[in-house]
Write a structure and sequence with these properties.
The chain is an alpha+beta fold and about 90 residues long. Helices cover about 20% and strands about 30% of the residues. A four-stranded antiparallel β-sheet has the order 2-3-1-4, covered by helices on one side. The model has no long low-confidence stretch (mean pLDDT about 90).
């Protein structure tokens, strides 16, 4: 069970295409949140842990969303939290 992020590059964000891609991505299993961002990618998909679909299967589904040119998975392998400061 893997969770992580998928960075998505769209062909165009004009004419409501980004909003359409966001809506389509939110319909995919395991996609918990979608953020529209600036930079080399247009969307960041937050992917929750689950047994199905597998990472490669989910990636194929993301790549099938209309307008998606590229999808780059970034699976979480380890994480750390900031320590909680002691109570005063």
């Amino acid at each position: 069970m893997t969770r992580g992020y998928i960075l998505v590059k769209l062909g165009s964000t004009a004419g409501g295409r980004a909003a359409q891609a966001v809506e389509a991505a939110l319909e995919l299993p395991r996609v918990e949140r979608v953020e529209l961002v600036t930079g080399p990618f247009d969307l960041i998909l937050h992917v929750g842990a689950a047994k199905q679909p597998s990472g490669p299967e989910l990636l194929a589904q993301v790549r099938s969303v209309p307008g998606v040119l590229r999808a780059l998975p970034c699976w979480v392998s380890a994480e750390a939290d900031r320590p909680t400061p002691p109570a005063a």
